[in-house]
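for the recovery benchmark. C-alpha cells below, seq after
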C-alpha cells in the first residue's frame, strides 16, 4: 500500500472490504475513483471492487462504467473479468454515454492496451 494518508486510507479500505455487500453500483465507482485519485493501489480492495462490480454491473450508469474503468486503468489493475464485463455493459448501453464518458472509456481501455472482441 503506497499512498498518502495511509492510516485513514487503510482503515477505509478495510471497512469497505468488510461491508462490500452493502455497496451500490455508484458507490463502487466513487470508491475506485477516490483510490485512483490518491494513487493508492490497495490490492485487496481492488479485488473486492472488481468482484462486486460483477454483482451490480447492470445498475452502473454510463458515467459510473467509465469512472470504474478509468480507476482500474489509472491504478494499472487489469482484472480481466471485471474489465470484460464493463466493456460488455458499455457496448450494450453505448448510446447513453456522454462524449466525455466515451473519452474516459476509450482512454481507460487504450491505456491498458486491452481489446474487446
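predicted aa per position
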Amino acid at each position: 500500500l503506497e499512498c498518502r494518508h495511509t492510516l485513514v486510507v487503510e482503515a477505509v479500505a478495510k471497512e469497505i472490504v468488510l461491508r462490500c455487500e452493502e455497496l451500490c453500483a455508484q458507490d463502487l465507482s466513487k470508491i475506485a475513483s477516490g483510490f485512483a485519485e490518491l494513487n493508492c493501489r490497495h490490492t485487496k480492495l481492488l479485488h473486492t471492487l472488481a468482484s462486486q462490480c460483477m454483482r451490480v454491473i447492470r445498475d452502473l450508469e454510463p458515467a459510473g462504467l467509465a469512472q470504474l474503468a478509468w480507476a482500474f486503468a489509472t491504478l494499472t489493475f487489469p482484472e480481466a473479468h471485471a474489465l470484460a464485463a464493463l466493456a460488455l455493459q458499455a457496448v450494450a448501453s453505448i448510446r447513453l454515454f456522454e462524449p466525455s464518458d466515451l473519452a474516459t472509456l476509450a482512454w481507460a481501455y487504450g491505456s491498458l492496451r486491452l481489446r474487446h472482441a
